[in-house]
Structure formats: structure tokens, C-alpha cells
TrEMBL record:
One of its GO terms (cellular component) is plasma membrane. Belongs to the major facilitator superfamily. EmrB family. InterPro entries: EmrB-like (IPR004638), MFS (IPR011701), MFS_dom (IPR020846), MFS_trans_sf (IPR036259). The keyword Cell membrane applies. It is found in: Cell membrane. This is Multidrug resistance protein B. Residues 1-433 form the Major facilitator superfamily (MFS) profile domain. GO terms for molecular function: transmembrane transporter activity. It is a multi-pass membrane protein. The gene is emrB_3. It comes from Tatumella ptyseos. NCBIfam families: efflux_EmrB. Pfam families: MFS_1. PROSITE patterns: MFS. Keywords: Cell membrane, Membrane, Transmembrane, Transmembrane helix, Transport.
Amino acid sequence: MAGKTLWRSQTVYVVDYLFCYCVLGMWYVRQSVYTDFLPCHSGGGRRPLIPLSQSLLLNNYPPAKRSVALSLWAMTVIVAPICGPILGGWISDNYHWGWIFFINVPIGIVVILLSLQTIRGRETKITRQPIDIVGLVSLVIGIGCLQVMLDRGKELDWFSSNEIITLTVLSVVALLVLLIWELTDDHPIVDLSLFRSRNFTIGCVSISLAYMLYFGTIVLLPQLLQEVFGYTATWAGLASAPVGILPVILSPIIGRFAHKLDMRMLVTFSFIMYAVCFYWRAYTFEPAMNFAASAWPQFIQGFAVACFFMPLTTITLSGLPPERMAAASSLSNFLRTLAGSIGTSITTTLWSDRESLHHSQLTESINPYNPNAQQMYQKLENMGMTHQQASGYLAQQITNQGLIISANEIFWAAGGIFILLLVTIWFARPPFGSSGKASDGGGH
């Protein structure tokens, strides 16, 4: 992550091989005690692929073509929202969820073979640097404990659990040690001096917070469709997938004309479209909603996604010398991924907690003194239900209503935060393209 050492192209082969090995292992041992061990190593192989591919593009393309390269890179990254939900849902519905791991292996092998052909002979210069052992250990402990805490927090009722409290304390202490150590070490594993750049700081904050909101709602939507509306995993995937259609079409076009555009305008448009789609979804989500009502906001949200990754990445990396691109790309992608994990935990926890609140409030209206409730009981009993069956039916309807209301509250809040983020991005200073560096005076 430090970026002091420019990795050889062979690093791509290593991390890709590690990823393939671990997902294959997870397929074989998906019912064993190793299912927690192998995903950790899979993450170790998967996480470097994005910053590695990004830094390779930036270092191998001339400055005039970097916007196009980043757009094509973003387009391939965005394909996941199209294929992932549909393919994963279809496999889960028709076979076994373990096969989801297995399909990564042939794809990984193809990537290794293509990489051998395309980046052979492009090894970069290696600068030997001392390994920051203290920083590395602090980073692993701090982020590891944080990730486990986020994953298990909801299951263990958060801070009512001693395990969660212990993980939180360990994470905070380790990250504080990391922060203090990295500010004073001569060869830090995390190059915090990057935050002296105004554009890098603003870009990291904007892309991390925006991705936290985006990813949290992406996780929420399929769960809502399956739990409330009875969608299968396949149909939930089909309803979520349209978000990736427009970015695939628009990303090359945006990259082609990026040098003529102000990146802040593109990001502003993206955040406005995110807010519009979240408000639209919050307004239309109701028990009688059909498939189109869930799919159309996802499709229109594609405009926001298309103007999200490439412009924000360009702003984040603008003004940095080539030798710092790898460090900047790694750190910004790390923070974005971490924000996505935090967003998932916050979203699912809020959804559950707010559902409990709304369920309690709605249940108060079901009493012998409410004529509407008695009328509903009478109607259900006339349909052949017993009083107990009618009570169970109404309880399920109340649960569904609580889930919908709490999800809509999250959508409303996410839309509002995107509007607030509009202000942040305008503190970045141009130029953002390849013609020059951002003003250093504004970066410190």
C-alpha cells in the first residue's frame, strides 16, 4: 500500500492465482471449519487486483489517454452489477450456492493467461524498502478486528456483546498505533502524506462516503425484494441488474470526451441522479409494487454510476506524480472498500432496528377498540380464516409494512446525504485532466 515499491507485473499473476486457489478451496470445503479461513485469503488475493489493474493502466497509458483507460476500466468493473446478481441468484435457486465460488476459477485462469500475453516485459523498476513491521501488524489487527466486528455485530446485538466490545477496543487501539507510527516512520506501509494533496483528500472522502451509501442500498434492495415481495434470488437479481446497463454504454463515451469536461460537473450530476433515484424508490416502494417499479429506478441509476467511478478517480489522482500513483490508487480503493463494508453493516442494522420500531407502532393499532382492525378481522374470517389465522396474516402484513417503511427511510436519508456531498466535491481544484497538475498551493 505504501507505493514506495513499484510492483512487477508478475504480482498480478500471484494475486490472481491466490484468488483462484482460495475460491476453489471454498467450493470444496464450504461445509467445513475452513470456510472462515479461506475467504480471508481470498480477500488477500482479490483486494489488490483493483488497485493493481488501475495503477498498471495509469503507468502504461500516456497521459492523454488515461481518461479513456479509466473509463474502460470502470466499465468492466461495473459489469459485476449486471452479471453478479442474475448469475448468483440463478445458481442459488437451481443448484447450490457453493457453485458461486467455483465459477471464479476458469475466469481467473483466463485472466492469468491474458495477463501473461499483454503485460509481459513491462516490469517496473523495483526499489527495495524496509518492511514496516509495526505498521503492517497494526493494520492487520485494526482492520481485521473492525471487519469481524462489522460482520458479526448485528448477529451478536452489537455492544451488548463482550466479543464486539473487545473487537472494537482492539481495532481502535491498533488503528491509533498505526496512525501515530505511520506519521513518524521513514518507510510507512500506509503513505499518509498523500492526504496533503487537497484533491486526493476530497476525492477519497467523496468516493468513500458515496460508495458507502451506494453499496449499502445495493445490498438492501435484493433482501427487501425477497423478504417482503417474495422474489426468488434470480428475480431479485434481475430487478437489481439494470443499474449496470447504462454505465457499460456511457463509460467509453464519457472517457472519450473527458478532457473537455469538468470532472466536478460529472460528479455533481452523478450525486443528483443518485438522490433522484433514491427519492423515487422511497416514493414508489409499497406492498402492491410490481417488478417494473423496482427495476426502473435501478436502470435510471445507471446514469449516476456512469458518472461516478471515472470522474472521482480522476479527481483523486490528479496532481500526483507517476511514482505515487500506485500508493494513491491502493489507499483510495482500500478506503472505498472499507466504506462499503461499513455501509452494509449500518444499512442492515438500521433496517432491522427501524422495522422493530415501526412494527411496534403499527401493532398498537390492532386492538378491539379500532373499528378498522375489527373490520379487517371480519373480512378475513369471512374468507374462511380462523381468528388465529387472521391474526397471523395481519402480523405478517405489519412486518412487511415495517420493512418497507424502514427501507424507505434509508432511501430518503441516502438521497439527502448525496445532496450534501455535492458541496464537498467543489472544494477540489482543477485541472483534473492529463494536461497538468492540480495546483500544489491548494493541495497542502
